[in-house]
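Let's do one together. I've listed all components of the complex below, 291 residues spread over two lines.
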Amino acid sequence: MTEGWRRRAFVSLWATAVAAAGIAGVAVLRAREAKPATHSVTIDATRFQPARLVVHPGDTIVWVNKDVIPHTATAKGGFDSKVLAPGASWRLTVRVKGATDYACLFHPAMTGRVDAE
Amino acid sequence: MIHRALIFTALVALPAAAGAQAVTDPQIASIVVTANQVDIDAGKLAAERSTNAEIKKFGTLMVTDHTGVNKAAVELVTRLKVTPQDNPTSQSLKAGGDKNLAHLKTLSGAAFDKAYVAQEVAYHTAVLEAVDKTLIPNASNADLKALLVKVRPAFVAHLEHAKKIQASLGGAHE
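Okay, and this is what the predicted structure of the assembly comes out as:
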């Protein structure tokens, strides 16, 4: 981003705010509605709950291991919580759109999916 | 086949004895702790003795998971002030486990792997049967019952995992 572009963008924004405060107000309101959310996935009884999560880029997901044995939340070629001991948790901030399937490395039948829309 | 007969003897004791009578919470506590310990001991031996990377990993997983289950079980019964009580089922589990370990110690290489995995398939099958038919239905304390329900899916995952390894060894029907 060049300095000139930034200045032009700033001037343009300022003009918009002054000239059309109403429209600017609506834009601010929309920006607030799209505030990043935090989602929680509980690991218990050798299951991810919920097994499917719909999120938006910028959102954070927290996996919490409430089971009595260690698990992982691992996507092939993607995110990896590493070992989550009983009681441990792990946070991931979603950056891009797309679907990601993941599983526990220790219990491969234990699967989950994140849909970033 | 000698080792097949031994495995059979060691395992049949569990569901037969467990199904024979209603069990109390102190007896269930003892059965749970013994059952986990038997599989921890076999897992340790497999992690140490097997030359197959998958089996070493599986053995280590059995040690980790069954240790976790036992830790939770001991914490719970301590909180409930339940003293685990020895009973015919826990005794036959212990005897079967010891016999199995002694047998596995006489084996090495592919023979060890095959026998260990066959034992794990049979063992988790028997444990699930006991959990479903005896332990969960007889548990009177709600927290004890909840713990059994909570750990059951891990035993199912172990059974499926062991079956997969068994199929890869080509030993499922031998």
